[in-house]
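Table S2 (continued). Query chain:
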Amino acid sequence: MTLLRALAIIALSIGVTAVILLGWIGLIFVVDTYTPVAMTAEAALNLMLVVLLALIGLPIFHTALYRWFWHVRRRTAQGAFPVGQPPAFGSEQTAPPPRTVKTTGQRCLYALVYVVGVASLITAYAPLGHQEALNAFLARFSAGRASFTSLAQLVIIFLPMAASFAIIVPLLERDRRRMAAGLADEVEVLRLQAKQEWLFSFATAFVMAGFTAFLAGHMILQFLA
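Corresponding output:
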């Protein structure tokens, strides 16, 4: 990493931190001044962070993972590494994913997935009371810090991922059969492969955003509440 790039990252981090702090103060002022709702500083910070994660973080995660999943598909097809044994995320340079033509139904599906994903993240994690209830549940059934972490991984990561895959796999079964039977030309195969990578990368990004939102809420409850 060059010095100029390091300085740019530092400057960007300072700018983002300043924006978040100003937004936090502004949100508390607006809510307390113009609405009858009583909102604590902790609840305002959690709400703001979760909304930012849902509206900005989720698309960023998704874009990065979609590009990485395509990279893994290409490199696997080239025999660079065995199937099911990809390199660590971000460990290799990646090329942009191929451009594909999307059908109207595909665009509607993508829009629906994003609406449901964003709404789910905000509904689940934005209210600080939900974070308190989730942390209380994890603490109640944990014997210590290690088991708390393991249970959190199960509830926040593995269960949502399993549920997402349980929805996606049957949804893509018809496409898989078409490709296996040779009923799709090269352009159609590329479109269907892009659909697969898009949905699986979104599921992974959704889980990452959810875990990050939980982690933010947990830190707020631990150090600010």
